[in-house]
From TrEMBL:
Keywords: Membrane, Transmembrane, Transmembrane helix. This is Cytochrome C oxidase assembly protein. The chain crosses the membrane at residues 23-43.
Length: 45
């Protein structure tokens, strides 16, 4: 295992961009599920 665990600023930006994209996607999925459960609840009334 290499002992050098530092990242260049470019690698850090790429990692942060990927993380932000993933977080946005997960947020949209969560919002979609919340809306789906809300819609199902309204339809069943």
């Amino acid at each position: 295992m290499p002992g050098n665990l530092t990242m260049t600023p470019e690698e850090q930006r790429a990692l942060e961009k990927a993380r932000k994209s993933r977080n946005i996607a997960l947020g949209l999925i969560l919002a979609g599920f919340a809306f789906l459960f809300y819609a199902i609840t309204i339809v069943r009334m």
